[in-house]
Amino acid sequence: MEFDFKKDYFSDKAAVKLSMGHEAFGTWLEQEGQKKEWVEALLVTIEQLQKREIADYKLVGSEFCLYLNIEEAKIINHSLHDLDSDLEDANDLSFYDQEIQAECGLEDFLNLIESWLAFI
What is the pTM of this model? Predict the structure, then answer.
């Protein structure tokens, strides 16, 4: 996963641009991850997963749910939980879905979060 961070010095908000297919992680980080303490707490959870102290984790945010397990990270916008099953299978929505859901390996996710913390 490739990413690039930027900071708006007027609003003091960090922004991230991620590689295609991972954009939802960027939207989620920009909305939820602006505070260092929040990111540090997430890193503690990832460490617990890696040590197998916990098997999985769910973090409900304002617009997204983050699901973590020992192998992967998945982010899903709350709106996807509300769609009918007919809409979920529609091919014309697949490009839009990339902006509201994404997944990656836990190691890639850890790299993103550690880099984000160092940036903010």
Answer: 0.84
